[in-house]
Specification:
Order of helices and strands: EHEHHHEEH
Largest sheet: 4 strands, mixed
Low-confidence stretches: 132-137
CATH superfamily: Glutaredoxin
CATH topology: Glutaredoxin
Number of domains: 1
CATH class: Alpha Beta
Number of strands: 4
Strand order of the largest sheet: 2-1-3-4
Strand content: 5-15%
Helix content: 25-40%
Structural class: alpha+beta
Shape: globular
Distance between the termini: 31 Å
Length: about 140
């Protein structure tokens, strides 16, 4: 089983469910506050790998939902700078296992990477906030 460094927004219902799925699978989860972590551009960039820049962002962040920020118009440097200044913009959770990194919680990807419990429904959506229609995170 893996030791997973899990960077979350404290109190996020979705992140709580994601942590439970990892724990049920037998992984050790070390929880970190994504909003207060002392990020650098180089360190934060590791989590996004070859994902498109728009996938680096939390689509429910108020600035994005309200149309005040358009990630598709940013360079990588601008995006990372904004995320360091405003960590609520970062797609969550961020995950690290050893020297591998990921952003978001696609069940099939996580299962292929570190394995989830056999009874896990890999088609379930555990990335969208369950209160997305009423809460802007």
């Amino acid at each position: 089983m893996a030791t997973v460094d899990f960077y979350e927004k404290p109190g996020c219902i979705g992140n709580a469910k994601q942590k439970r799925l990892l724990q049920i699978a037998g992984h050790t989860v070390r929880v970190h506050n994504l909003l207060t972590e002392p990020w650098t551009a180089d360190r934060l960039r590791l989590f996004f790998g070859d994902r498109p820049l728009t996938d680096w962002f939390n689509p429910t962040a108020p600035a994005i939902k309200q149309g005040n920020l358009q990630p598709e118009k940013l360079t990588a440097g601008e995006a990372l700078s904004l995320m360091i200044q405003h960590p609520i913009l970062i797609r969550r959770p961020l995950l690290q296992v050893g020297d591998r990194y990921a952003a978001g919680f696609d069940l099939a990807d996580i299962d292929a990477w570190i394995s989830l419990a056999p009874e896990t429904n890999l088609s379930e959506d555990v990335q969208t906030c369950p209160q997305q229609s009423t809460v802007m995170d």
